[in-house]
Every structure is written in structure tokens, then in C-alpha cells.
Amino acid sequence: MEKLSSPKRTKEIVNKYGFRFSKSLGQNFLIDENIIYKIINGAEITKDDTIIEVGPGIGTLTQYLAEEAKRVLAIEIDKSLIPILGETLKDYGNTEVINTDVLKVDLKELVETKLDGERVKVVANLPYYVTTPIIMKFLEEEVPVKDIVVMVQKEVADRLKAKPNTKDYGSLSVAVQYYCEPEIVTRVPKTVFIPNPNVESTVIRLKVLDNPPVEVTDRKVFHSVVRASFAKRRKTLLNSLSFGNLGIDKEQIKECLMACSIDPKRRGESLTIEEFAALSNTISKIL
Questions:
Q1: Residue 41 domain-assigned?
Q2: Which of 101, 92, 97 has its CA nearest to residue 74?
Q3: Nearest to residue 52, comparing CAs of 105, 132, 107?
Q4: Regarding beta strands 180-188 and 201-208, do their DSSP bridges make them parallel or antiparallel, or are they unpaired?
Q5: Which neighbouring-strand residues pair with 194?
Q6: Whether the predicted pLDDT of 202 surpasses 80
Q7: DSSP secondary structure letters along 23-52
Q8: Parent domain of 262
């Protein structure tokens, strides 16, 4: 079967089924084999790997994943794509497609029932409008994931790997780096999709850590402190945290900051993940 990475083949399939691209679902189909191989190589896929793909579209990347991995579970929300995937993936017996919303499914249970509880790699060209919720769902719900290699909007990738004291550093940076070590795989131009998106893209690898880089007493408090610290970026930490509904008053917040040797006049963007951990642990003691 001719691969779907051929623009000609992609157009034939789309026309055959009268498929209409949905802007609301962020549908842009990849038509560049070089980019696909960069994704495959970036994920270091072997015949021992079990893959979850989110948003397979018409199965372009899925075909290559199926050839390289032990098995592939593809999750597609758009029911109009299911018959198309039935055709494009019919020669791949190690692939299963599920028509559901990844944000509503119990991922941990899905891996248990469909994939025998194996550690998985998530490899996907993610719908850009739900990139962050999907990534955080895999990380926060104790899904046995060892790697996440996904194509995302360039600006999101920059935020995922950003360091303190940069414009891209924010709560997403800290949240993801609590679980992962981010690494840029490749930049992706608009021209390798049908239709062309309005933004540049990036393939990023999030290598899931066996243990977080910091110890926190209460993970919920840690993430609440991080979010509150960035909620009002132009304000000092003391003021930002005071409006963060943390359950303690301004004077207590100041005492916690001072106990961690953090100047209350600093801003959230200047704190390292280690400082956030120390601060959240100190706050946890008085909650």
C-alpha cells in the first residue's frame, strides 16, 4: 500500500471519503516522510515498544509506528475518520483504533485492559487546542508512560523546556519538568501539512523521569503554589501568592518565603523548581 505521507495519496483518501477537515478539532494531516522518520527516531522506537497515538487522523504516522513497534493503540475522537482508518490500517494487525475522547477516558484502566499494563510510549501529532491537557493527563494520572514524543505548537514546546528568568518560563514549564526531561527533536514548517496550519510546529520529547527532581510533601500544594506564583507575572511573589487561595494569609506567606531564603519581592519566573519545592513544603507544614 502506498504510504499516506504521499500528498497525492492523502488527497485521494480525503476525496474518496468526502472528508472535511475540522478546524475545531485542529485537523492538519502530515505529508512529509522525513518529519515522520524524525519523530520515529526521536522516540527511539523498537520492536519491544507499545505505542499510544492520540489523534491518528487518517493514519499517516500510525502506519510507520505499526512497522517499527510491537503494537499501537490509536485514540481518535472523530468518528468520521474511523472507516478511513479501517482502510488505511487494514494491513497492520498490531494496530487497534478506539473512537473516544482521550480527555474523558480512564487512561490507566485503558493501558491495563488493552495493553496488559505495559509501560508505553506516547507518540503523536497532537491537536494543538488540547495539547497541554493531554500531556498533563498522561503525566498526572499515573499512566505507565516512559516517553512522550509529540508534535506541538512551537510556542508550547518553548514553554515546556523553558528555564527560569526567561519569557517562556511559567507554570507549565515547572509542572512538566517535575515529571520529565524535555528535549527538542526537530522544528517543523507549516508546509508539511494538509491543510497548512497558521503556526510553526515542534516535535518535542518528554523523557519521563523515574523519580521527580525534587521531593514535595504534598503534590497538590506544590502545583497550587506554582500556579499562584505565575498567575500575576508582573507582581511580586508575596502579592501573587496572597491572591492564590492557598489557605494562609499574607503575613504567613511572607514568613514562609523568608524561611526559604526567598526574597518576597522576587517574581515567580525567577524561582527554580527546587525553590518551588522548598516553598510548597514549608507552606504544607502550616496548612
A1: yes
A2: 97
A3: 107
A4: antiparallel
A5: 29
A6: yes
A7: TTTT--EE--HHHHHHHHHHTT--TT-EEE
A8: 219-286
* Alpha-carbon dihedral 62, 65, 71, 77, rounded to 10 degrees: -30
Report the mean per-residue pLDDT for the chain.
Answer: 94
Residue whose cell numbers read 509529540: 150
Q: Which residues contact 137 (CB under 8 A, 6 or more apart)?
A: 102, 103, 107, 143
CA atoms within 13 A of residue 143's CA, in its CB half-sphere: 29
Domain end among 149, 184, 208: 208
d(CA 226, CA 161): 16
pLDDT single digits (tens) 157-196: 999 999 999 999 999 999 999 999 999 999 999 999 988 8
Query: 258: which strand partners?
Result: none
Which residue type occupies 169?
Y
Q: In what order do the strands lie in the sheet with 50-54?
A: 95-99, 71-76, 50-54, 120-125, 145-153, 201-208, 180-188
Q: Could you report the per-residue pLDDT of 107-134, keeping only the tens digit for each?
A: 999 999 999 999 999 999 998 889 999 9
CA distance linking residue 185 with residue 164, whole number of Å: 21
Number of H helices, E strands in the chain: 12, 9
All three cell numbers of 147, joined, read 516517553
Burial call 207-244: b when 16+ CB within 10 Å, e when fewer? ebeeeeebebeeeebbbbbbbbbbebeeebbbbbbbeb
Q: How many domains does the chain have?
A: 2
- 133 and 273 together in one domain: no
Grid cell of 280 as nine digits: 510548597
Judgement on whether residues 70 and 114 belong to the same structural domain of the protein: yes
d(CA 287, CA 283): 7
